[in-house]
Amino acid sequence: MDKEHKAELKNANLNQKIAIRERRLDSILQAQSTYLVRTDLEGIIRFANQTFSRKDGVDPATLIGRSIGSEVFADDREKLKVLLNQCLQHPGKICADLIRFQWNGTTRFVEWEFKGIQDDEGTIREFQWVGIDLTERMDYLKEISEYKQRMDNILSSVNEIVWSSDAETYE
User: Which of 13, 79, 133, 164 is most buried when burial is the number of CB atoms within 10 A of its CB?
Assistant: First the structure.
């Protein structure tokens, strides 16, 4: 067997291993519940995982080139700018906050962590966003709060009735 043929077999073997690894990593990315997005410094999406694209029901490739800022709830855009500025000012720092997004007419609460990704010279060239949708949790906490308020109102009414009844008894 000559050297060229050995090199071809080795290359084919490496390509097969790479393909297996890519399929494994792709299945991990598809199974996750965390949003993973990379944007340039202007907020243009350069990468979005399947989880993030599912919220719009689109292919991740169609998100590439879109501005992520257009999906941020209008009241939170300034907060987002401040956070991304902090990442630019302090390379390596992870900045996090709850940012509201408007998707398909629905407001979603997403807790994001932002990190500036540096090149070899230490200059931040893009941002990595890792987010968890907390909308269901926020809705649940709101329902609990409303339920607690109703219970407090009922208990307060009962206490007033008992107090009135006791006051009449002692007269």
Answer: 133
